[in-house]
Amino acid sequence: MTDSSPSHDARILTKRQRAKLDDNYDSDLLQLPMEPMKKKQLTEEEMLLKKSEIARRRKHQSIQRAEQDKMDTINRLLKKQASKKRSKDQDETDSINKDDNSTNSQTPVAFHYVTNKDGCTLSVPHDIEIPIQFSKGPNYPPPIPLCSVSGCTRPKKYRGVNTLKYACSMEHLKKVDTIATQNF
Length: 184
Hints:
Layout: H1 15-21, H2 44-102, E1 112-116, E2 119-123, E3 158-159, E4 166-167, H3 170-183
């Protein structure tokens, strides 16, 4: 192949194409048909049968979709009703337990505090004496420190970053900081 045209370049040709160009075409290399495939010609009866089959499938699919939507809706509604029923059952159980607590049929083993529409209840174990004596009083918050500037009695609002001294205003904070830097 001495022809240098790009359409006959031996490197890019397949074995079949090279054989055709060299006229050494072996009979063991089969050639596929090159003309486009022709559609099978259907008779009018076959076409009508095919159309009716497609229509029947579409109808069947739409019926299945409608049934599935119907079942989904039913399940969704049943789940909502079940949760509502469960909450109603729990309300009834709570009211029965409330009646039981009011008659003291159950002895509490720990403090039990209930707040509902009827009011507040506190159940106390039998071994606890009432009134309850606490060993320590309540912890009130510590008093707010006063301003560090001498002669000022106002409560603190600011704290110096470097000095950690308290001040009631920005002016006093600057004074506290300048006094601290002069001492260093």
